[in-house]
Amino acid sequence: MRKIALVLLALCALAACGPADSGAPDQRAALDPALLQTLPAARAGQVLIYGAYGFTGAGISRLAADYGIAPVLAGRNPEKLQALADELGYAYIPLTLDRHDDLVRVLSHFELVMHVAGPYTYTAEPMLDAALEAGTHYVDITGEMHVIQAQLARHAQFAAANIMLMPAVGFDVVPTDCLNLYVAQQVRAPDHLSLVMNTAYQAAEGAVISRGTAKSGLEMLSRPLLLREDGVLVPATEPRVQQREINGQMQTLVQVPWADLVTSWVSTGIPTIEVYQLQQGEMPAWLLRLMRTDWGKALLGWVIDTFFPEGPPPQAQQTRQVQLIATASNAAGDSASAQMITPEPYLLTFHSSLIIARRILDGHWEPGFRTPAQVYGAHLALEIPGVSRQDL
After folding, report:
1. Dihedral class, residue 230 (left if φ above 0, else alpha if ψ from -120 to 50, else beta)
2. What distance in Å separates the CA atoms of residue 53 and residue 94, rounded to the nearest whole number?
3. Residues of the chain with CATH 3.30.360.10
4. How far is Cα of residue 42 from the mean position of the Cα atoms in its chain?
5. Sequence-separated (6 or more) residues with CB below 8 Å from residue 216
6. Percent of the chain with pLDDT over 70
7. Which CATH superfamily is domain 33-170+350-375 in?
8. Which of the 8 DSSP states describes residue 12?
9. Exposure string for 267-297, b = 16+ CB within 10 A, e = fewer
């Protein structure tokens, strides 16, 4: 079991850093109407953080005041909510995703919902449905490409409701989306985009992923591999592998089904997008087969719940760094490359999600499905503490 846990840990480093209130919604009693009286009477400037007591949700909640946001905290577990709310001095409301009418009633009190409870395979749709009916802007921190693709299909609904749907406002999409757009803007009519992710650029002891992120990674990796070619997502039998010099050393790069195959396609319009991860250990073929069976997913879910920590310790958040390298090119052979160095992914997510939330509350948003760089530009990521960019 330890070997399975360690291998899955390496694999799920490919997932976004976020979901932390995992699993399908449970069944509970209907919302007490008296609780609605405790919510803000006027929705302008009001933010609900759903999944607030998970590792990422708690990190966002603790940092919210630095961005002038005093959120109401929400999630399924009243005891965990109350403990965090008492610590931070915020109001809270226990809330499940299985009662649509209750969700709508609650969201009607808020201008924005920050949905940080996953895996989004199970949690995104009910929250999206409620946000749409309530007229509430929606952001999340998913990295599950199939979820983002489904959200893109709802663009017209959210545009008609005059509210914004912006997934993936954490790591990886905020820095990669911004870097990808930046290099795309340096090339005339780019038709190819390549992104390389080095998540071990500056390693740190204890820099592991949370249980929620691991479960989202499991959801991603248990699905068929897709590639973006000529503007279309196409299935692939196995990931592409290549050798490339990175930081003065030859490295093995493995193609991964990252969210940028959807988000950066929307942001840049580039038809062919490849995303690679520096290989860090071999992936046994049997593990991928195990993920793609119901019983195997259940077993690996148990491994995650049993062996995975809540998240990385503070010292790892302060020292770990990630390197991103993006290259855009066109048919004439012109190209532009740049690298971005980011802080530890969870710490980045805390800041990036709140930077975007603050923008929305200040009236800077566009209706429909939107990506971070599409609305806020290629330089948005540079507002995050610890992020730097360099032309190559």
Report:
1. left
2. 11
3. 172-344
4. 29
5. 12, 15, 16, 18, 19, 22, 118, 119, 120, 121, 142, 143, 144
6. 77
7. NAD(P)-binding Rossmann-like Domain (3.40.50.720)
8. G
9. bbebebbbbbbbebeebeeebeebbeeeebb
- Look at the block and give the residue holding tokens 């992104």: 195
Contact at 8 Å (CB) between 136 and 113?
yes
Distance (Å, rounded) from C-alpha 116 to C-alpha 76?
A: 12
Q: What are the residues facing 164 on neighbouring strands?
A: 368
- What is the reported pLDDT for 352? 98
Residues of the chain with CATH 3.40.50.720: 33-170+350-375
Residue with tokens 């971070």: 372
Q: pLDDT for 45-97, tens place per residue?
A: 999 999 999 999 999 999 999 999 999 999 999 999 999 999 999 999 999 99
Q: Answer yes or no: is pLDDT of 265 > 50.
A: yes
374's CB contacts (< 8 A; 6+ apart) are: 177, 181, 266, 267
Q: pTM for the full model?
A: 0.84
pLDDT digits (tens, 9 = 90+) for 283-296: 555 555 666 666 66
CATH fold label, 172-344? Dihydrodipicolinate Reductase; domain 2 (3.30.360)
d(CA 101, CA 99): 6
* Average confidence (pLDDT) over 321-347: 95
pLDDT at 236 over 60: yes
Query: Is a pLDDT exceeding 60 seen at residue 212?
Result: no
- Assign 249 a pLDDT band (cuts: 50, 70, 90): confident
- Residue found by looking up tokens 């989306």 in the block: 177
Q: Is 268 helix (H, G, I), strand (E, B) or coil?
A: helix
The residue-averaged pLDDT of 113-117 equals 97
Please give the Cα distance from 143 to 32 (Å, whole number): 33
Better-predicted residue by pLDDT, 264 or 293: 264
Contact 15, 216 (CB under 8 A): yes
